[in-house]
Amino acid sequence: MTEKKENIIQAALDLFAQQGYHATSTSKVAQQAGVSEGLIFRHFGNKEGLLKAIIALGEERLRSLYADVVLETVPKKTIEKALRLPFSVPESEYDFWRLQYKLKWELPEHTSNKMEPLRVALTNAFQKLDYASPEMEAEFLIHFLDGLGSGLLKNDVAQKEKLLEYLMKTYKV
Q1: Mean pLDDT by 10-residue block, N- to C-terminus, for the chain (173 residues)?
Q2: Which end of the chain is more exposed for a tag (fewer CB within 10 A), N or C?
Q3: Contact by Cβ (8 Å): 68, 153
Q4: What is the distance between the alpha carbons of residues 173 and 167, in angstroms, rounded to a whole number?
Q5: Rounded to whole angstroms, how far apart are CA atoms 126 and 114?
Q6: Rg of the chain's alpha carbons, rounded to an integer?
């Protein structure tokens, strides 16, 4: 990816996060990125194309985040790694993830199937550990982790370390 394309995406990320997607024009993005508006159209087609590029980047980063969990073969390690996921996001990336959460609510095409590989990995882990309802346990954990991620991004989680320790003890990992 070229430096100018990266600048456009970063400017769009910043502006979409601060002002919202609908309130941000391509001319504002171009101005903040230090490029011509035409360059945005050449690279992305239109504002929706730029948004799709940002969503694709989010999906790519999400897959990177949970790849280690999905590839894990030891059931307890799978669960442990899943529990650590929200805590593993560097604070320097919080703005990016805040925008992803915001888009999840704003855009109808944002679906939950992005978590399917994680859901399958957790279900398999819970099955191997003889949980009574592995599918529901996996579903619960994914929704819990999503809410926890939201709380962490809002800096609204007290005693992060103690919470992680509690989760590890609860799941015996």
Answers
A1: 91 89 94 96 94 89 92 98 95 88 74 85 98 97 95 92 96 96
A2: N
A3: no
A4: 9
A5: 20
A6: 19
Domain ranges in the chain are: 1-45, 55-170
**Which of 11, 172, 163, 173 is closest to 87 using CA atoms?**
163
Q: Interhelix angle for 3-19 vs 26-33, to 10°?
A: 130
Helix (H) or strand (E) holding 17: helix 3-19
Q: Answer yes or no: are the C-beta atoms of 7 and 29 closer than 8 Å.
A: no
Chosen CATH of 1-45 out of 2.30.260.10, 1.10.10.10, 3.40.50.12370, 1.10.10.60? 1.10.10.60
**Other beta carbons within 10 Å of 18:** 12
Tokens of 73: 């073969």
Summarised one tens digit per residue, pLDDT across range 81-94 is 999 999 999 998 88
Angle between helices 3-19 and 47-71 (to 10 degrees): 90
